[in-house]
Amino acid sequence: MQRSLKWFAVLTTIGMLFVLIGGALVTKTGSGMGCGRSWPLCHGEFIPSNINTELLIELSHRIVSGVVGLMVLILSIWSWRTIGHIRETKFLAIVSFVFLFLQGLIGAAAVVWGQSDFVLALHFGISLISFAAVFLLTLFIFEVDQKFDAQSVALERKMKWHIYGIIIYCYIVVYTGALVRHKQASLACPSWPFCSNTRFFPTQLHEWVQMGHRFAAGLLFIWILFATIHAIKHYKQQRVIYWGWIIALILVSCQIFTGALVVFTKLNLYIALAHAFFISCLFGVLSYFVLLATRSKKEQTATQSTKTSPVPSTILK
Asked: Where does heme bind (predicted)?
């Protein structure tokens, strides 16, 4: 039973990634109206008669989202009944399904009634929260047999400040990136890192949206770099934190690199989807840090542990 739940949790997490990437694909290919103003049907038909690329992309995203939504519901109920004794399980089970359902409602409303670009930018962020909840549920399921033990991690106040601050700020960066896509401002600035080779400041709205996102992403990289340096200096004995921040730094570096390539390649689709993939993975890692922070020992114990005490062997596994 436990083994089946693990496999199902992993598949559901992967499915959520497909939902995130699929949503980005719909936006980047301009396929949001591939099925017209009809939802959940396509042009009012159960089986569309006039099939084109935009319709296939939009319909595929709807089907994948529906199937994964059912998987999330099953995982929520299954994990609730199996590992409901873990205090965060029930909360995450509710969040994972509710936010995925909310994401679907926003998508449906956008098709039927239309929405502003600023509202549509929330679509990806809401899906990201659902993905993070499913990802953490999966970790809880694997944690039952004590392959790793988040309870043993000890964090001092400065590290907790980094974790809580970075994940909130990362969500803001995600929103600015989604706004770039929905405002179709991905190529508003033909140069990188500045908007133009001849001028430093943007001159119109689309350029401000694009440069605002670049500036926000740059600050995110710097903040994660500082947190990683702090982890390398003070958390060598706690490998979950040590390697976790190194992975986060790699992911945010890949995020910035693919963002630059989006400009240089004139919005290459595969690079643009990789850009969405890396930020999704980064947000998952940061969400895990939040879990560790909420389970961390008291600050005075954490400070002593990071300096003198070796980490329990269960973390090293």
From this structure: 213, 275
Measured at the CA of 269, the angle between CA 38 and CA 101, to 5 degrees, comes to 40
What's the whole-model pTM score?
0.82
The 10s digit of each residue's pLDDT in 169-180 is 999 999 898 888
| Residue 58 annotated among the catalytic residues of the structure | yes
- 149, 312 in Cβ contact below 8 A? yes
> Is residue 61 part of an annotated ligand binding site?
no
Domain extents in the chain: 1-144, 146-317
- Estimate to the nearest angstrom the gap between the alpha carbon of 256 and the chain centroid: 15
Structure tokens given for 220: 């995110």
Q: Tell me: is residue 275 an annotated ligand-binding position.
A: yes
Q: Give the HSE-up count for residue 243: Cα atoms under 13 Å, Cβ half-sphere.
A: 7
- Other residues' Cβ atoms within 10 Å of the Cβ of residue 284: 21
Q: Of 54, 58, 143, 299, which one is the catalytic site residue?
A: 58
Tens digits of per-residue pLDDT, 284-302? 999 999 988 887 754 434 4
Spatial distance between the Cα atoms of 204 and 208, rounded to a whole number of angstroms: 6
Q: Is 42 helix (H, G, I), strand (E, B) or coil?
A: strand
Cα 213 to Cα 203: distance, rounded to the nearest angstrom = 15
Q: What are 108-156's pLDDT values in tens digits?
A: 776 666 666 677 777 788 888 999 999 999 988 887 655 555 567 788 8
